[in-house]
Request: fold
Amino acid sequence: MSTDIQGTSDRRWLADLRVTLTDEHAAQTARLTELTADTGDPGEAHTRGALIAATRLSQDRIAAALRRIADGRYGTCDTCGAQIPPERLEVVPHARFCVPCQRKHDG
Reply:
């Protein structure tokens, strides 16, 4: 019975996370729309370009996390297949790797 409760808790947490990530993706999309509007100020181009790149990266990471949730792979390390600790996922919800594999990936 505790397995059912844990499973229900996990499903609820995942459903809540999906909503949060979907909302964040929509917010990043709106931000990207604002950033790509031409203000006509060439002095802002460099800063705006950096903000656009960061926003697109955030969008890509969120979209990938949503795909992993849909595929049932969320929370599993892409490299070694180990479970990513829930504490890490709370801090970095788009994490693809466990900490040891992330360190190897970052070099």
